[in-house]
Amino acid sequence: MSQAEFAKSIYVSNGYAADLENANKKVNDRIIHLISLSFGVSEDWLRNGTGNMYFTTPAEKLQRLTSLFNDLPPRFQDYVMVQIEQLLSTIEGKEPDK
User: Fold this and answer.
1) Percent of the chain beyond pLDDT 90?
2) Whole-model pTM above 0.90?
3) Domain range holding 41?
4) What is the largest CA-CA distance in the chain?
5) How many domains does the chain have?
6) In a domain, 98, yes or no
7) DSSP code at position 54
């Protein structure tokens, strides 16, 4: 992945990503959170090198999903719920409830 692709993935400018790489800027909580969200990497692993690098178990994934969901405004929570229901209906081969 190029530096530009990485920057775009975590919603920062190319210059900001370059400053992070060159240690001209410190990695803050926001950047760690964005990396975790974008790449499915554990924040604990990013901060401390402890635990699994990626979310691997259903419990870890559910914990992360719950955290992300709780950070959303209610209208986006509703949107996520509809999308999950539609995905499940598609997998099951039936029409979603309207």
Assistant:
1) 55
2) no
3) 3-48
4) 53
5) 2
6) no
7) B
